[in-house]
Amino acid sequence: MFELDPAVPAELVPLSWLIGVWEGTGVLAYRAGDQMHEGEFGQRIAFSHDGGRHLQYSCTVWALDAEAEASEALPYFSELGYWSLARPATAADPGPGMIPGVGESEFTSAEQVETLRNAAGSFDIEVSILHAAGVSELYLGAVAGPRIDLATDAVVRTASAKDYSAATRIYGLVDDHLLWAWDIAALGHDLRTHASGRLARVD
After folding, report:
1. CA–CA separation, 111 vs 113, rounded Å?
2. DSSP 99
3. What is the pLDDT of residue 33?
4. Can you tell me whether residue 185 is helix, strand or coil?
5. Which residues on neighbouring strands pair with residue 117, listed in sequence order?
C-alpha cells in the first residue's frame, strides 16, 4: 500500500502516487507503412523530487531476448523529464535560468493547492520530456486521482532526429501497478498505437 511521504510538497500531492521506482515489461506494436515494429521490452521508470514543485522523471527501456539474461540487455531507449501542476509562475518560483525565487510560495497547503483544480475537478499538468535520440516533447494534460492523460502541445527535434510530430500518453494506478499507453505520430504517419506497459513499484 502506498503511503504519502510527509516531505512531499503540497503542490506535488496530486502526483505523489507516481513517486518511486517502477519496473516491469511492455509491448511495442507500431505499424509504419508495410512494416510492423513489434516486440517485448523491459522497463524501469523513476519519479523523485527535491523539495521543489516538479517531479523528476527518468525512463530506461531494453529489449527482452529469450536467449539472453536480463542483466546482459543493453538499453535502446531512454528519456528524462519534469512533471508539475500547471499554473502561472510566481515571484517565489526560481527562474528564468538560475535566478532564485523571492518570497514564500502561494501553494504550501492542501487548501491552497485545491484552488488549482479546473472546472472538471482535476488538476491541469505540464510535462516536459527529452528523448536521448534528440526529440523534446511538451505535454499538457490532467491528473484526476490515479489517472493521467497527456497530449503533446509542442514537439522539437534536432536535425539528426527521426520524424516524430505528436503523441498522447495515459498513466494509471491499477491494483498497485503503474499501467501506461503511448500513441505517437511518427515516420510520416498519423497518431496511432505505439507501446504500453505494466510496472510494479520496486522502491
Report:
1. 6
2. P
3. 87
4. strand
5. 123
Residue 51, helix vs strand vs coil: coil
Share of the chain above pLDDT 70, in %: 94
174: CB partners within 8 A, 6+ apart? 146
In this prediction the pTM is 0.93
Burial 125-159 (b: 16+ CB within 10 A, else e): bbbbbebeeebbbebebbbeeeebbbebeebebee
All three cell numbers of 172: 494509471
Q: In which element (H, E) is residue 197 found?
A: strand 192-201
Segment holding 183, helix H or strand E: strand 177-186
For the record, the C-alpha cell of 128 comes out as 516536459
* Residue 72 pLDDT grade (very low, low, confident, very high; cuts 50, 70, 90): low
